[in-house]
Amino acid sequence: MEEICRISISGNWLADEYIFYENHTIKRIYDTHSLNSNNVEWLEPQQISKQNKDKLIRACPEEFKEQIMQILDYP
Predict the structure, then answer these.
(1) How much of the chain, in percent, has pLDDT values that exceed 90?
(2) Tens of pLDDT along 10-33?
(3) For the chain, what is the total number of helices (H) and then of strands (E)?
(4) In what order do the strands lie in the sheet with 3-8?
(5) Do the Cβ atoms of 16 and 30 come closer than 8 Å?
(6) pTM of the prediction?
């Protein structure tokens, strides 16, 4: 499974990273609190809030933006 890019949208010291793959799957690695870190979940685009999609697109490297927007079904 080929990785396109990783985008971190952590707003504080808790990790919140999304990994996008060429087969249009999205993996999220996040911390809920300091003792519960590196949780992993696989997401469908509709499970990601509009607010987080905005953050992901803003943080996305320019060369991947079009691809990531397609995967996220954004806007």
Answers:
(1) 89
(2) 988 899 999 999 999 999 999 998
(3) 2, 4
(4) 3-8, 16-21, 26-30, 39-43
(5) yes
(6) 0.93
